[in-house]
Design a protein that fits this description.
The complex is a heterodimer.
Chain A lengths: L1 E10 L2 E11 L4 E5 L6 H8 L7 E6 L2 E2 L4 H5 L2 E4 L11 H11 L6 H10 L16 H15 L3 E5 L7 H16 L3 E5 L3 H7 L2 E6 L2 E7 H6 L2 H11 L3 H12 L4
Parallel strand pairs in A: 3-8, 3-9, 6-7, 7-8
Antiparallel strand pairs in A: 1-2, 1-4, 4-5, 9-10
Helix pairs in contact in A: 3-4, 3-5, 4-5, 5-6, 9-10
Chain B lengths: L1 H14 L2 H44 L5 H7 L1 E4 L13 H4 L2 E4 L13 H6 L7 H17 L4 H6 L1 H8 L3 H30 L5 H28 L3 H30 L5 H14 L7 H16 L11 H37 L5 H13 L3 H28 L13 H5 L11 H6 L2 H29 L2
Antiparallel strand pairs in B: 1-2
The chains are: A alpha/beta, B mainly alpha.
Chain lengths: 252, 469
């Protein structure tokens, strides 16, 4: 569903992504881990069409997102780290407006159902967004993705700043979306949540994917130790692969 | 999509309090400026009507006297306010509207060097045009500087982008919302004026609205494009405020000073001295007044076949005075014609700068539509001078042919003769005439409108390519 092949992205003389390959099939949640400056945000911006790669291909739902970014955006939804909505509108009005931007005119009942499904309680639907907590705004962001009927969802640091309960709730909603066939790409620093939520975890270091573990490997092992080993010792992909194998007992 | 975004912009204005503040203050200013302008207009018209009637009664009730005495008693003539002077008093605010006409003396009331500066810098008075041309653009800047910059800084632009918003729709909706806010304020101002006015020139009022509608579109699009192209709220606000200060305050002064430096007007005293000299010594030093007098006397004597002026059947003094008057008119026509050409040349020069400043184009067109610009004033002076000439000629003709003899200054004309004089009747130029002198300004404003609309498309393309982050 989301496929990145040999992606190179440079900012001036600095190479942010160096031959990145990544694939998120439908119904799967992919967690992209990595230290600050590893290239996670660049990857998210590339997938959402906010920037273009220097080379390589990005396909979303089979659509070439580099050649047809607007077509690719039709099947994609995005929930940023801090969901910035219109503060003068209520949750339901924001949902309706953002859905109109995607070409969907939602009735009130449909809008309320989307918000409920995203986990937002009914009493909050008609309150102005500027009275919402961060977690509530994330839920409206998810509702926008739900209403769009997106087949691919990109989340940027979704659990950042959320309390454990809200974070858990959000993870459950994401899993719910994946169980309905949505491919989810999630950039995060939250190793615990990644372990709980993701089917696959990729570790990005200096613009390259240094390790990739599936859910079984992640759940049975110490992800934090593996993560630290890779980012501290792995300076080249071959070495990193060896580190990852050593840490998790599985090759890339 | 544009409709939804447009409604959202208005909802934001109304719900976050900005709209309420702008509309309440806008309404107060609109009503205050319109009421002030209307009451000033009504007071001026009432005092003008009273003065006209008083001057007329004084003219009629004056005891029978010699026509030449009447020529120097003179007459007051008044220019009615321009058709939309309540909206834009233009040059009327500095030129005045009353003239005293008498024999031998033309009126030079245009020859005041402060005219241009006073007209271009409107801060000295709060009238509807000041609100429309200076304050509403400032409101659009203050409301709109963050229209796109804030969307970007808050990260909402990314969400909108991924949802599939077309950049052109977003920018067009924001421009339309800002423009419509300006138009609401504009309609408040013009509507208040209409409410206070006791007569309405609908054609000129419509033209006035079309002018400001165009001007506000230019400003709204400029604000949105700057907000989109510049990174950061602070930068956008600073640049737009600088542009407003330049367009509203600095540029008009600079252009006025440049026009005076490039093509300076003659000094008023030198102008009057040159005219006096030409009248005494003859145009270009030929045919001085004494020679002209002798020639005219010989011509009249020959015409009547007599050898002395005492034998003339008419009063030679009347003919001589009229001849002198006509010579004075020639001198005036040449000097004032040159001065008028000078004014029009300067006005044309200033007009070209409208391509650099849409506020200037709007200002000049506003005065023309209101009938209060330089051309209207010069037209009034021409009509006044024409009236003065007819008035003096009628009196001189009566002096010459009414029945008196040469040298008889005690002869008195009948009161019926004086009663036959009609009051000055000013003919307002048509809107077409008023605008026919404003080619540069119309072309400039159209160029601004087309150019800014093209910039909107270009900015949308730029936003789509690399401006979202």
């Amino acid at each position: 569903m989301i496929e990145l092949e040999d992606i190179v992205k440079e900012y001036g003389s600095q190479r942010a992504l160096d031959g990145l390959r990544l694939s998120v099939p439908e119904g799967r949640v992919y967690g992209l881990l990595g230290p600050n400056g590893a290239g996670k945000s660049t990857t998210i911006h590339l997938v959402t069409g906010l920037i273009q790669p220097n080379s390589g291909s990005i396909r979303i739902g089979g659509i070439d997102a580099v050649a047809n970014p607007s077509l690719a955006r039709e099947v994609l939804a995005y929930v940023p780290e801090s969901v910035s909505l219109y503060p003068h509108l209520s949750g339901i009005e924001n949902l309706q407006l953002f859905s109109r931007m995607a070409g969907h005119r939602l009735e009130l009942a449909e809008s309320a159902a989307c918000l409920e499904r995203a986990g937002l309680q009914g009493e909050a639907h008609r309150r102005r967004i500027d009275t919402y907590s961060k977690g509530m705004r994330q839920k409206v962001g998810l509702a926008i993705a739900l209403a769009k009927g997106a087949r691919a969802l990109v989340l940027d640091e979704p659990s950042s700043g959320l309390d454990p309960s809200a974070s858990h709730d959000l993870a459950a909603r994401v899993r719910d979306l994946a169980s309905n066939g949505v491919a989810v790409l999630m950039a995060t620093h939250d190793l615990f949540r990644a372990r709980e939520t993701c089917d696959t975890v990729g570790l990005l270091v200096k613009g390259s994917l240094r390790a990739e573990w599936d859910s079984d490997q992640v759940k049975d092992r110490d992800l934090e130790a593996a993560y630290l080993e890779v980012i501290q010792e792995g300076s080249d992909p071959t070495e990193a692969g060896a580190v990852a194998r050593g840490a998790m007992g599985t090759s890339l | 999509m544009i409709g939804a975004l447009f409604c959202n912009e208005w909802l934001a204005l109304l719900r976050d309090g900005r709209g309420a503040v702008v509309l309440v203050i806008g309404t107060l200013i609109a009503v205050a400026s319109s009421w002030t302008a209307a009451s000033t207009d009504q007071r001026e018209r009432a005092s003008q009507a009273a003065a006209t009637e008083q001057a007329r009664q004084a003219w009629l009730q004056r005891p029978a006297d010699n026509p030449h005495s009447r020529a120097h008693y003179g007459d007051y003539i008044f220019r009615p306010n321009g058709p939309l002077a309540q909206l834009d008093s233009g040059l009327q605010a500095v030129t005045g509207r009353a003239l005293f006409t008498e024999a031998h003396r033309q009126n030079d009331s245009v020859h005041r060097p402060q005219n241009a500066a006073a007209a271009l810098l409107r801060f000295d008075r709060l009238e509807p045009s000041t609100v429309l041309q200076l304050l509403i653009p400032l409101v659009l800047v203050l409301v709109g500087f963050g229209s796109v910059a804030w969307e970007r800084e808050s990260g909402r632009l990314r969400l909108l982008w991924v949802q599939g918003v077309r950049p052109l729709s977003l920018l067009a909706a924001k421009s339309l919302a800002l423009w419509s806010l300006g138009m609401v304020l504009c309609l408040l101002v013009v509507g208040s004026q209409l409410a206070f006015a006791d007569h309405v020139d609908w054609i000129r009022t419509t033209a006035y609205l079309v002018l400001h509608s165009t001007s506000l579109w230019v400003i709204a699009v400029l604000v949105v494009c700057v907000s989109s192209r510049l990174r950061g709220l602070g930068t956008s606000a600073a640049v737009l405020l600088c542009l407003w200060v330049c367009g509203a305050i600095v540029f008009p002064r600079l252009v006025s000073m440049t026009a005076n430096a490039v093509d300076p007007l003659p000094d008023r005293d030198a102008f009057l001295a040159a005219m006096r000299e030409d009248r005494e010594k003859g145009l270009d030093g030929h045919n001085p007044s004494d020679t002209r007098r002798v020639e005219k006397e010989e011509q009249v004597l020959a015409e009547y076949g007599v050898d002395s002026k005492e034998n003339l059947p008419i009063n030679l003094d009347g003919l001589m005075m009229q001849a002198d008057e006509e010579y004075g008119n020639k001198v005036w026509d040449r000097h004032f014609g040159n001065l008028e050409d000078h004014y029009l040349r300067q006005s044309g020069f200033v007009g070209m700068f409208s391509f650099l400043n849409p506020l200037q184009a709007t200002d000049r067109l506003s005065m023309s539509i209101a009938g209060t610009d330089l051309h209207s004033h010069l037209g009034f002076l021409r009509q006044a001078e024409s009236y003065r000439r007819g008035f003096v000629k009628t009196l001189n003709d009566e002096h010459a042919h009414g029945g008196s003899k040469t040298g008889d200054w005690s002869w008195k004309a009948d009161p019926e003769f004086y009663a036959s004089f009609e009051s000055f009747d000013y003919h307002t130029p048509s809107l077409k005439d008023s605008l026919s002198h404003r080619g540069w300004d119309i072309a400039a404003l159209v160029t601004w409108m087309v150019g800014l609309t093209a910039l909107l498309f270009g900015t949308a393309r730029q936003l789509g390519q690399r401006g979202v982050l």
